[in-house]
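User: Structure please.
Assistant: Input sequence and predicted structure:
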Amino acid sequence: MGSTGIEVSVLGLGTVNLGRNQEVKYPTGFTIPNDNEVRDLLSLSQELGINFIDTAPAYGNSEERLGQLMSNPNDWVIMTKVGEIFENGQSRFDFSAEHTRESIENSLRKLRRDYIDIVLVHSSGDDMNIIQQEDALAELDKLKQKGLIRAFGMSTKTVEGGLWVVEHCDVVMATCNLEYNEEQPVLDKAAELNKGVVVKKGLLSGYAGVAAGGQGVEKSFEHVLSQPAVSSMIVGTINRHHLQKNVELAEQYISIAD
């Protein structure tokens, strides 16, 4: 993960599906998996070589379920977020220092960890206002100095915000896929400065299967994983077959790149 010293699998497991099925932008609805299904998914992920999990307080009770259902939480590299709260079917945002501290304390308790590997600010879309006017990033820096987190950054939504984060933080979460390359300057700067890059929406939020003449999933993996800056690509699934296929594709394009 850039120069953080944190080793992550090139595929990370996204876990919004474990705790929330409201207001998610997927092609079809889904039922949140039960505890046994989650344990099975986590076990299979480890068997396939995935060690990286992406979660957030905004993902319903995802953090709490992970803490309860991971056989050993310390076996995983865990990335969570601060700033967004999902309640009563909608999101609200709080980027204050106080809320940031409380959010990290809650995440540590729910995940049953003494520290969190990576914490990102969950942007509302107004990246530069959050960066310039809010205290979340400064507070995360303090928490890093205290040893409660190992690395921090932001899940950005603008090129300007992404470039700032690359220059001043450890990790940026950026969008990169077949139909959207506007954040390429962020990836290029991250490669130049050896900063961690986590890709979101790499499979077009589940729509990649109908893109590129039906070859969208394969081409999406090739497109994202060919980027020199990319540390890991987050893919959320609760389907064993999809998970296995994703790993096969990732291995294939890593091999081609090598």
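The beta strands are 11-14, 52-54, 77-82, 84-87, 90-93, 116-122, 149-155, 171-175, 196-200, 232-236.
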